[in-house]
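Record pair follows.
FIRST:
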Amino acid sequence: MAKLSIIGKKKNGIVKLKIVVEKLQKSLSLAKKPASNAHDFERVTDSTGVPKDVKEGYFAVIAVDDDELKRFIVPLIYLTHPSFLRLLDQAAEEYGFNHDGALTVPCRPSELERILAERWEEERGSRVDVNLGLVKSC
């Protein structure tokens, strides 16, 4: 019985991940022209265009906590990290899935930096050549 519960949770997590990936792919495919100023958070979050600093295989994330916000460019591989997936669950609960612009997560930017560094350290420990660990904050 416990095995069924674990399998159900894994399937639920995979379904949520698939929804997020589909949303990201849809927003990337709808892009007509990039935002003119990548540091203008309102323009980036309101725009369906992909800014020039978001390369293929990456996505933009904005960490928001009260009045503090910071934008990050993150490799897609981070979508499998458990702590990042928990943030996505929180974002889905707080903001829903139907909004335009960059992915927004409800956490302090310093907390998102910690999560991204944690994943980077995991990659670094398991591989000699780490090109995926380069996360850029804006």
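SECOND:
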Amino acid sequence: MRAMPNFQTDPASACGDAPSLICRWVSDLTGNDELADLIDWLVARPITVLFVFGIAFVANHLLRRAIRRLVARLASQQDAKADPRRIAGLRAKAREKAAVLQMQAERSKQRAESLGAVLRSVTSFGVYSLAVAISLGEFGVNLGPLVAGAGILGVAIGFGAQTLVRDFLSGVFMLVEDQYGVGDVVDVGDATGMVEAVNLRTTRLRDVHGTVWHVPNGEIRRVGNKSQQWARAVIDVGVAYGTDLERAAAVLKEVLDSVWHDALESATVLEEPEIWGIESFGDSAITIRAVLKVDPGEQWAAAREVRKRLKPAFDRAGIEFPFPQRTIWIRDAAPDAAAVEPATPRFESRGEPTED
């Protein structure tokens, strides 16, 4: 009896060490290694890639949604602290403070949204990069040379765009650390002014003259924020050397206390004003230093209010504001003519000159 031909083949020879179900099925059904390998390339592996990208899409969607919900929760918490309906029912003074609170809430909201955008971008890049790597591995692509080439390309791009990368990273750290935000008055070295916008690459400032400055975040080496928590108005007052210093300090303290107790909207003094004492001895004045602790951004208005009240108070107390004086000596007496007149020679009849 003649033996039946055996069409069984080894799936590993056609589909590799980890054969797919489709490749196994075709190999067992037809016994053709080439056909099984072709079906594996045209059907099984594309299906696997689609499955991988489907999982990546779902994972990316869920992660981005979680980030958006987290950002929305943070933003809603800040909005609740500065509800416009609550602000409308307050008095003028309270509305002023509530408006500041609303600005701070807007700043925190903008910071949360910026960080959320960064996290969403990083999440999408990471998820889809992993999906691409898995898909290339399914087609038998060696990822080692690709990773090395990507590393070299990344180094080249890093050298070419290192300024942009530096600005981006600096912007991320500024947002994370909350160094400043919209509405703050900051000193960044080259420019000083109020922050109008902050993004991952640049910071936009407007100075006291109205000039708008666009400062790259990577060029900011230091930041002096004049609008966080509280501020201090430093007032130096010069008095003449003949002034009774105790009397001058007492009048100055009365003016400071009046500003404190009046609770002005534009100059809210948080603590009792202080007289620090004599600051310096100048050419024509003794400088007395006083300070007021005020709300952020109100130090300049507080100092102007003190100076406005100090002038009439000093006038009533007979205290003089010194000013530079110069003494000029003028000599109006005519000098002795004999002392400056040159000797004139006289001539005798013989024509020989002779001097007296």
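COMMENT: Residues 1-8, 85-91, 346-356 have pLDDT under 50 and may be disordered.
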